[in-house]
Design brief:
The protein is an all-alpha fold. The protein contains five helices and no strands. It has one domain. It is globular and about 35 Å long.
């Protein structure tokens, strides 16, 4: 598991790029590039950390994280 690529690890944990992007406050495109190691330093530590936290969390904690991320989004103009 520790040597598994981060993209596969996230997917195996049920963490989509869209969800990860929402939790991290970045675009899906950014997450896609980060998971594929397109950064000079590879997958950023904060992305790795988020995936590990997701793997270790109960469904209740995951739901709370998703609710928090949803509240962080700016209001859409009407």
């Amino acid at each position: 598991m520790d040597n598994e690529p981060w993209q596969k690890r996230a997917k195996r944990a049920g963490l989509t790029q869209k969800t990860l992007a929402s939790l991290l406050g970045v675009s899906e495109n950014t997450v896609s590039m980060q998971l594929r190691g397109k950064w000079a330093t590879g997958t950023p530590q904060y992305v790795q950390f988020a995936i590990q936290i997701w793997e270790l969390s109960s469904q209740e904690v995951k739901d709370r994280m998703l609710d928090w991320a949803e509240r962080q989004k700016p209001d859409k103009p009407e």
